[in-house]
Write the structure tokens for this entry.
Amino acid sequence: MKNYLYIILLPVWIVFYLNLAAIADFLVYDLIQLEPEKHLTESIWFFIYEVPKVMLLLVLIVFAVGVIRSWFSPEKTRKALEGKSLFAGNVMASGLGILTPFCSCSAIPLFLGFVEAGIPLGVTFSFLIAAPLINEVALILLAGLFGWKVAVIYVITGLSIAVFAGFILEKLKLQRYVAEWVFSVKSNQTGVIEETFNFNDRLNAGLESVKEIVGKIWIYVLVGIAVGAGAHGYVPEDYLASIMGEGNWYAVPLAILLGIPLYSNAAGIIPIVSVLMEKGVTLGTALAFMMSVIGLSLPEIIILKKVLKWQLITIFIVVVATGITLVGFLFNLINI
């Protein structure tokens, strides 16, 4: 795509995004002529409004981060973590987990390279926790739906969990619970070719990121918003507030237990979290639910089984779940 087309598309994006509510009103009330304040009408309006809103945010931020990511590669990530002290390594690994394009499935293969390079096990866990838990999709969707204050809170708490969970896991000396074959894999450090990009290449890398990432997760966006739309229109506020609202000590643990069996990513789960909060679920409980879905999902645990023994997986789950629980209770307590 020519550079000038990117410049033209940005103001079009802004105009369309700023008028989404008016467009949704026109489609629902004028064109389809649905009756206001009905359950079905509320659900349809929510879906028509949220789908383009989320997709526009996704396209813009994935493109921008795709450009930034053209400076990163798995090899550069691995090299950046070599030779770092434990806590500094945890912090750096968590930061790289945010910036690098790896979900839990694609980040786990890097586990092998980290171990081969002699990077502490706890540092690798910090990376594996941060990579799926905190990413540009989560950040921009949270900012769009709840504001930047909540988005920043999520990033800070997610980073804290990644850093301290990795630090604790390393201190427990759990290397014996890594599958034996991992340590026998031979490193292959030769023949690594670092690509060089000009400015146009980086813009094209952003476009390719949009095609790849949005192409993979759009269905999760639709499903997540559809579930959220149904809850928005039909789920009584009193029901969710009664089981997961403020004042229930078990709300945070319950949210975590409900989140673990689910399989979704940030794009699919954040619209649902938005409706939960709208129905009276507190911020801490909603964040705990979201973090458990993204960071402790069953597919991730199954993939981890390929490189870790069950003892270490269990400890990993307990440590991360404890961190998520503390985050949930903390933000419910301070009532942000």
Notes: Residues 224 and 320 are 24 Å apart (CA to CA). The chain has 17 helices and no strands. The radius of gyration is 21 Å.
